[in-house]
Amino acid sequence: MSPDARHPAPAEPSDLVDPGVPVEVASRPAHATTGDRWRRAAVYRVHTASFADADGDGVGDLAGLTSHIPYLRDLGVDAVRLDAGAGAPEEIGALAAALHAVQLGLILEEADAGEDETARDWSAHDVDALCRDGRLLVLRRGEGAAEPAAPEPAAIDVDLTAEEFEAAGLRRRIEQALEAARVAGGAPTWVLSRPGAVRHATRFAFLPGMGAGPDAVEQWLREGGDIEEVPVALGLARARAASLFVLALPGGVGLLQGEELGLQEAGGARSPQPPWSGGLSVEAESFDPGSTLTMYRAALAYRAYLAGEEPLDWVDTGRDDVLHVRRGPWNAVLHTGVAPYPMPDGRVLLASRVLPDPARIPADTAVWILDT
């Protein structure tokens, strides 16, 4: 059965989620119709050829992507991002209409700088925004309202694919990105995995302290490294923790297809895996309260309510392996070290893994806490 054949039932509460708050939020607030929507958007990056095949020729296509829109809607993302060459303009326009029908947007990735005329053409096909050189340019503010031909960037990609699972380095990169976005007048879009880079569920299994940086992992995979040798549980625990922490940061977030299932890198393959292949499937994870998919759905649903314009405040943890950020009443803590960290006061809303001791945050874990 395809993942959109039926809507998954809400998962039962688990040790990952505050049992007083449902995993699925039944009614999400309406999307903003201004450019500010894109400054906080959760964007799902699709490699069309490997996503879903509608005509059975072995290659994914736009029809396959369109058939899985219900899955993306239920995941809780705000928009889909794909290459501008994924189909003819008329086909892309039809995809945009189908996405708009369920309140999702469409962003096209352009390989070069493009021309103003190109922007006008895509606007005429109801494309919401273009991404050029990692900068998001909004074309449509709302229904039928087009932006100027040369819009200002609303969001800027922050590539975290070279970062280790290490608190000091992550904080330094986050602070640099927030300042760069402020100067540019845009908002950061945090990206932990992207096409062409080793997925963070795989590379975090090596880092830090194992003598392998992202380039070395990439080379190891290209030379035929056996993915079965990777400590999968460690990589997934760190990936879930990093993802949950990044989802709490100001700005938007870019998700690579399949990361919501915890997919590992597929050997030397460089195109993203479809999110319904292999041992990790949408059908299996939809009904598992402790799954990566359940965590992403919960986080994206809560984020729709919690994310606002509150500034990011760093809270002193007294530890160089623990990060704590606060945005109004919303706190996120990331533990990248070894020794457990005392749980801050408040209500634990969501955790990246089961908490054996509710009074302490274990290693390789992130939690969301609401002030009480």
From TrEMBL:
InterPro entries per UniProt: GH, GH13_cat_dom
Pfam families: Alpha-amylase (PF00128)
All residue ranges annotated as the Glycosyl hydrolase family 13 catalytic domain in the record: 46-81
Region Disordered: start-end pairs: 1-22
Name by which UniProt lists this protein: Glycosyl hydrolase family 13 catalytic domain-containing protein
Originating species: Brachybacterium huguangmaarense
